[in-house]
Amino acid sequence: MNLRAGLFLLGLGLVSLQGCDQGFGDHPALGGKWYLWSIDSTEIHSRSIPLIFDGASHVTGSERCNDFSGTYFATPKIIRFKGFELTTMGCIDSLYPEIDSRILMGLFAARTWSVRGSFLSLKDDNGSLKLLYGRNEPSPGF
């Protein structure tokens, strides 16, 4: 094989590898800020618990008391979160301490996602709703 043919085949390989990565990483429908509405189908009567997809496979958010950041990979249906860092504020005044741990557990359990209207659903392997986020903040006591 001559050098020109080898470089051509290498180029084809790089193009095909790039093609394999398309659609797995970031997804435009996820982009921007979302607010938590429910965990495991239980309504959360709290405001400003955000989840922010930055458009570069990076996600940040809050558990009410602590902030977190990590990465995600998404296809049009599948999602995976990993590599999270978490602040440890040790808030003693949290009205809903159970929320704090359940948000990250819900993100790690999420396997599929969908956006319908202004809502983002994250579901586990069994199709159970783990987390529901909306584009707008819920009203207290909704």
Give a written overview of the molecule.
23% of the residues lie in helices and 36% in strands. The protein has a single domain (25-134), classed as Lipocalin, CATH 2.40.128.270. Residues 2-24 have low confidence and may be disordered. Strands 1, 2, 3, 4, 5, 6, 7, 8 and 9 form a 9-stranded antiparallel β-sheet that branches. Strand 8 and strand 9 form a beta hairpin. The relative contact order is 0.19. The termini are far apart. The chain has 142 residues and is α+β, with helices and mostly antiparallel strands. The chain is globular and about 40 Å long. The protein has helices at residues 3-21, 97-109; strands spanning 32-39, 42-43, 50-53, 58-62, 67-74, 79-86, 112-116, 119-123, 129-134.
Give the name of the CATH architecture: Beta Barrel
* Major sheet description: 9 strands, antiparallel
End-to-end Cα distance, whole Å, is 69 Å
**Mean pLDDT over the residues:** 79
Sequence of secondary-structure elements: HEEEEEEHEEE
Radius of gyration: 19 Å
Strand content: 35-45%
Low-confidence stretches: 2-24
Task: Enumerate how many helices there are, as a single number.
Answer: 2
Give the overall silhouette.
globular
Secondary structure: elements and pairs:
Elements (H helix, E strand, L loop, with lengths): L2 H19 L10 E8 L2 E2 L6 E4 L4 E5 L4 E8 L4 E8 L10 H13 L2 E5 L2 E5 L5 E6 L8
Antiparallel strand pairs: 1-2, 1-3, 1-9, 3-4, 4-5, 5-6, 7-8, 8-9
